[in-house]
Design goal:
By secondary structure, this protein is of the alpha/beta class. Helix 4 runs antiparallel to helix 13 (356-366), helix 9 (219-231) runs parallel beside helix 10 (254-264) and helix 15 packs across helix 16. It is built from 16 helices and twelve strands.
């Protein structure tokens, strides 16, 4: 392959050919997404083997073949999040403009790790993170960084908590350090378990605190757990509040957690990876009251803001102080210009994709008001679904939604075992999927499998809700899941 067929020439000699090439990819993508409703929401079948995968190609493959193989081998077996009936996970349709913005950032191929590798995008990221910190109510001096995922953001937040509690850890490690403990809800994300392992604290030092009947962390149980930890001679370092638990979307009592953290001298982190989008809604933003007191916040626009993956962020209350705690300068870079920063000097990860471009363009294309309106619509749809469940003789909700997530299942008999319930729900999920109209997930929740729906797709209508109730009710009444 000649270089002018493989690259966009910097002198512009092949601009027309590259425009035509790009247009074919855009047309292929639009065709795939524009026919999503005609395919099932999720097909778990095996579409392999894939051409030129196990045996790598020695010679170029024709573009017609490459695009045809995408349509044949990838699209049918891909998660079809654009389908209005895909209601299973925290994944959804991506906005058109941020999707095409991903092409722009890929073509620029900048690395916002150090200023000299991405001057404009580094500045943009710093300013946009300041804007999000302000939106969450954090004070002046707050800001943050984009990360590859909420897991990395949560890990970095726990690293900051450890560094504040044990400042010598970055130089001398944990030799001689006290046993440090972190307190999270029993429903907190698994990323905190990974953080405890990665930071050398140990899985047992992640203390999961009981939740109440609304699936929110119990503040009194938290206080008792902190006291008990200190009595054991341990050193509590952080309290984590979750704004949108993974399975049912519950929001911990953030004002109380912040109060406890301040009184006990603990780092207060809020994992708002999912629920952070509530801050854009004039109607529902008050559910995040107390988040403004956090020392750090995790937020993932890739979920409810319709930004393509990956796009997550960590916001910190004291940006300058956090950068000092994370600082590790690479010898192969120059200092940033005045007013700028080498973002990689203060981040866990190395090479970073310029995710800020699609976030910035997507935010500008939507506007905060429109995004807030989408949030309101999806919460209203979740509540309507709960009404349908409560009216059903066979089905029942497990939670009253604080956002757009509903856990539900069949009505159970007194004394029925979790194992029996789990088997029935797993079979029910499979039968619903078999109908091909709606797909829901079947996660484990407090000892049993439940069914879960997330209302994210703006093309989901009452028709999908009615179809889901019908498919589930028919399966139950026919006795199929027994």
């Amino acid at each position: 392959m000649h270089r002018d067929e493989a690259f966009i020439s910097p002198d512009g000699e092949n601009r027309d050919a590259m425009r035509s090439l790009g247009a074919r990819f855009v047309a292929t993508l639009v065709e795939a997404l524009g026919t999503s409703a005609s395919r099932v929401p999720l097909d778990l079948g095996n579409s392999g083997p894939f051409p030129d995968a196990i045996e790598l190609p020695d010679d170029p493959v024709a573009l017609d073949t490459i695009l045809a193989d995408f349509r044949t081998h990838i699209v049918p077996g891909a998660m079809n999040a654009s389908h209005p009936g895909y209601l299973g996970h925290m994944d959804t349709i991506a906005g058109a403009i941020p999707t095409f913005a991903s092409l722009l950032s890929a073509g620029l191929n900048n690395n916002p790790l150090f200023f000299e590798e991405s001057p404009s995008l580094t500045r943009l990221e710093s300013e946009l993170m300041e804007g999000f910190a302000t939106r969450f109510g954090m004070p002046g001096g707050a800001g943050g960084m984009l990360t590859t995922a909420g897991t990395v953001a949560n890990l970095t937040a726990m690293l900051l908590a450890r560094q504040r509690a044990w400042p010598g850890g970055d130089e001398d490690g944990l030799a001689g350090a006290p046993v440090m403990t972190i307190f999270v809800s029993e429903l907190a994300h698994v990323s905190f378990e990974k953080a405890a392992i990665t930071l050398g604290l140990g899985r047992k030092r992640l203390i999961r605190v009981a939740v109440d009947a609304k699936h929110r962390i119990d503040p009194q149980a938290l206080e008792d757990a902190v006291i008990a930890s200190r009595r054991r001679g341990e050193c509590p370092i952080a309290v984590v509040g979750t704004a949108g638990t993974t399975v049912v979307g519950s929001i911990d009592p953030l004002p109380r957690l912040g109060e406890i953290a301040r009184r006990e001298g603990l780092w207060f982190h809020v994992d708002a990876a999912y629920g952070g989008t509530l801050i854009l809604s004039q109607t529902h933003r008050f559910a995040l009251s107390g988040i403004e007191h956090a020392d750090s916040i995790t937020f993932n626009p890739q979920k409810w803001m319709y930004i393509p993956k990956a796009c997550a962020m960590l916001l910190v209350r004291d940006l300058a102080g956090s950068r000092r705690m994370l600082h590790a300068k690479a010898p192969y870079t120059l200092p940033a210009l005045p007013g700028a920063v080498n973002l990689g000097d203060h981040a866990v990860q190395g090479t970073r994709h310029a995710d800020v471009l699609k976030l910035w363009m997507g935010l500008r294309a939507f506007g905060v008001k429109a995004l807030g309106s989408l949030v309101d619509d999806q919460i209203a749809r979740a509540r309507r679904f709960v009404d349908l469940l409560e009216a059903s003789p066979e089905l029942q909700p497990i939670n009253q939604p604080e956002m757009n997530i509903v856990g539900w299942g069949t009505r159970t008999e007194s004394g029925e075992s979790n194992e029996a319930i789990s088997v029935r729900h797993s079979m029910l999920q499979a039968l619903i999927a078999k109908q091909g109209r709606v797909w829901v997930s079947c996660p484990e929740f407090r000892g049993r499998r439940i069914l879960r729906t997330l209302f994210l797709n703006p093309y989901t209508t009452d028709a999908q809700l009615d179809a889901l109730i019908e498919d589930a009710s028919v399966a139950v009444s026919d006795g199929s899941p027994e």
